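Tokens as discussed.
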């Protein structure tokens, strides 16, 4: 049984990646659950575009999933250019995923940075710093489990009661400065 990681980022007040980790056996059931977050005939659920009532509804449903979804938060302070912060977060999240049995990683599609993401992950695998895993970029509308990561990033960034509601699902939080380069 593999573990799947779905990640999305927030670029508000620094840079952070949120990852939702799901066991392979739960994928189908959780996709059905998350699809119920949508309002009306929307193709997808996107936190920043939803009304407060829709967010409250989704938060109640997300909290009930705490035995089936682990949330990982990796963030970088606003001290470097965005591409450096992103690389540091991708590096740290890849290392965490490797250490915790992730076999498949789906990152939210963001065309300008995808090449660099793939380069970072491939280099870590090539040097043996992380185990081999399948990874890809996917559009949010195509993969509902990315909506959990999007929502987690938003909740963490908002802070206060939003972050407190998310914390029972958070299994790892890390603040990074630079990409880690270990000796192979």
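Sequence:
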């Amino acid at each position: 049984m593999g573990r799947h990681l779905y990640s999305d980022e927030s670029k508000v007040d620094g840079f952070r990646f949120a990852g939702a980790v799901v066991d392979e056996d739960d994928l189908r059931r959780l996709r059905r659950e998350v699809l119920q977050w949508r309002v009306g005939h929307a193709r997808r659920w996107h936190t920043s575009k939803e009304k407060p009532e829709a967010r409250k509804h989704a938060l109640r449903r997300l909290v009930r999933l705490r035995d089936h979804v682990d949330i990982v938060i990796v963030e970088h302070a606003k001290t470097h250019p965005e591409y450096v912060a992103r690389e540091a977060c991708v590096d740290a999240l890849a290392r965490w995923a490797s250490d915790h049995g992730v076999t498949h990683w789906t990152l939210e599609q963001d065309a300008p940075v995808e090449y660099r993401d793939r380069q970072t992950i491939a280099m870590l695998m090539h040097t043996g710093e992380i185990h081999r895993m399948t990874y890809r970029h996917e559009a949010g509308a195509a993969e509902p489990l990315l909506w959990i990561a999007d929502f987690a990033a938003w909740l963490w960034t908002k802070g206060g009661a939003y972050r407190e509601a998310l914390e029972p699902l958070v299994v790892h939080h890390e603040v990074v400065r630079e990409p880690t380069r270990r000796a192979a």
